[in-house]
Amino acid sequence: MDGSAGFGDLLQQAEQLTAEMDCGAELPKVERSIRQIMDAGHRLLTRTAQTSQDASDVKASILLGSKGFDIPRISQKLEGLSAARTFEPLEPVRDTDIHGFLRNERENALLTVIEQTRKNTLEEAEKRHWDSLVNEWEREKQKILNALIGTGHDTLDFPQEQESILGDSINMQGRSAMDNVEMAYARQVYQYNEQIVQGGIRPSLVDMFAEVGNKLDDDNITEIWRMVKLMTDVPMATSSSIISSRSTQRMQTAFVNQAKKYLEQSYHKYITATVYGNLQQAQLGGVPGTYHLVRSFLNVRLPHSTPGLEDGVVDGHPVWAMMYYCIRCGDLNAALHVAQQAQQNIGEFIVFLQEYMKNEDRRLSPNSETKLRLQYRRSVRTSTDPYKRAVFCIIGCCDFSDVHSEVAEKTEDYLWIKLSQIRFGDDAESEEGGSTQDTLTLPQFQTTLSEEYGESHFSAYQQPFLYFEVLLLTAQFEAAIEFLSRIERLRCHAVHVALVLYEMNMLALSQSIQSQLLSKETGDPSPMKRLNFARLVMMYTRKFEGTDPREALQYFYFLRNLRSPQGDNLFMSCISELVLETREFETLLGRLERDGTRKPGAIDKFHSDTHKIIAKVAEDSETKGLFEDAVKLYDLAKNPEKVLELMNKLLTQVLSQPPSPHSSKDRLKQMALSIAERYKSQGHEGSRATTGTFYLLLDLLAFFDLYHSGSLDQALDIIRHLKLIPLSLDTVEQKVSGFRHYADEIRRSLPDILLATMNILYTQYKNAKSAGRQSPLVGRPGTTDDGGKESFTSYLRSQAKALITFAGMLPYRMPGDTNARLVQMEVLMN
């Protein structure tokens, strides 16, 4: 019962509490969802922040108002300044406000100028930035391409043929990256440069290289140099422009005549070899001369007269065939002998042939040429005798479209026929009643071969010597060299052909060494190309400059008259890059002996003022951050001011480091001591300020070495004698005023000097405190003696206090922890 009553009472009380809550006025019942509660909280937070901001604005207005500032007016001014930062034109004012209008116009004009200047500045900065990046990338790309080419990998090349070893060459494959052929060429280059440097008679470079080609067991290489020798045997250029000189009638005529001469000599050798290879069938006989040689050749080539050939025979062979092969061998007298024997059959052609022979330029007079062309168009063009058509086209320059495929069986025959038909100067112009198709000029023929036919027509990579011959014999020297240089096993020969043409002032050079290997400049006559000669030489030497720097130096000497994009002498720039990459300082630049004399290097023979070259290498080393190399090079170039300047920078970086064998500090220390010893004994021309800083750094170097080794008393003696920092309060101001006279290297080292000195004083203080000893320095400079002795610890504290005072008065911002550490140790000493 009691339990039931207890629960009933509890229920009654609970219902009473519920009723009171439902009807209470102070705490109304609120029913909200979670989202409603969150929204209400956000509204309260926003209202609170706004109230806080308003309160801040009110407080700011009260504060500034009490100082006399008008807040609304200041806000308007600030908004005006904010708008002006955008450099936008101001708003126009009313037309009646003259003063406001003028002021507004003036401000608008100023803003316009500022905005335009800012825009131009940004554009110019961006342009220069991109130009710099492009130039830098071009240089890096050049180095990468040269390095790739120098490795000897060429996807377009074919397996290298086995080459014979020259009888007088030395097999240096164990250490050298050059093969026997390259070494043989390099030997000739060395001998040629020796003659040039010594001022003797300039030897024939083409003969020297041809000598190398003759020693190789390769007829193609021999023919290359025979072609080059003939094509360079022309009148020297008189104009300053190589392109202008090569475009003159005189030079082009010489090129064509020399090309024909080579082709005629080659064909004569071919006929001779054919005849002597078939003596029984040829029936040569004992009479010398081209006429009998051609007759014997036709006995092998045309054993029976071909039916349908016109105008009879001579010695059993067609007259026109006999005449063609005589002309093809370059013997016009033999051709005239044939014509005289068949004079009744060939009519007045013998007159044309005699006139053709009399003219040195191998041309008929305009009247005779017109008659011969008329005869060709009327009857000869439809003749069944291919030799007759070929002879008429050669003598009278008829029908340039006919390739004479029945007669010209090889490319050399086609070249010879077309070269014989080329016209020059006024003769190349269209004659009255004629058309432009009646003439063939050398540029037209060059364009046909190199652009219309091109490499694919001649199967250039399968027959590289043939395509090189086509280009070289048509005076397209640059294209011929560039093509041959693409083939790894022939690149060596291409480079040396380029050297010959460059030395003879016959090579069209690119205006920039950053151009492609073969390029065309605006304004050059078509199809003239330019060769980047410097790039070709540097690509070639990239292969062996690491193992054979002396040989690379010989090739760089050819670049002495060229300029780099920065305007520097290209020879000096190449030497600098070679030295820095190979690090053959002593081999190339020489060595400085102990007595100060310089042992000559490889460059001494090339330049009268070798110090300029060494200085150039030193500058490049300094620019690249190779300061130790730059010190040695400046020392070699007799520039003590730069030596001391750079040594001061290097010593400052390692001054406070603890000594360690074979460390950078040990290496720099030995270098500095050797320089100091030599300069002290022999003298130098460095400035007093730089020299004083250098010797002061050497003393500080000794101080830190003693400090790190534990010789604290000796280290403190050095500091005391240097008088760099105060060790007594009465010298603080003097040292502070003298601080501004020290170099930056000393100022940067001062925090470490102060810390090391304070450490020495603190260590001595602790030792003295523990031992309870008196000062052993009584009576020495820097101590105070009040009629007896002063405590050693007091003396050390006074020195520490002087250091703290000095550090605080210095007009120099030291590292943040330096003062804290100084104060900490000074406090520990009290």
TrEMBL record:
Source taxon at top rank: Eukaryota
GO MF annotations in UniProt: structural constituent of nuclear pore
Swiss-Prot/TrEMBL keywords: Membrane, mRNA transport, Nuclear pore complex, Nucleus, Protein transport, Translocation, Transport
An example Gene Ontology biological process: poly(A)+ mRNA export from nucleus
Segments of this protein annotated with the region Disordered: 772-791
Primary location: nucleus
Cellular compartments per GO CC: nuclear pore
InterPro entries, sorted: Nucleoporin_int_Nup93/Nic96
Pfam families xref list: Nic96
N-terminal signal peptide: none
Compartments in which it is found: Nucleus, Nuclear pore complex
Protein family according to the UniProt entry: Belongs to the nucleoporin interacting component (NIC) family.
Protein name: Nuclear pore protein
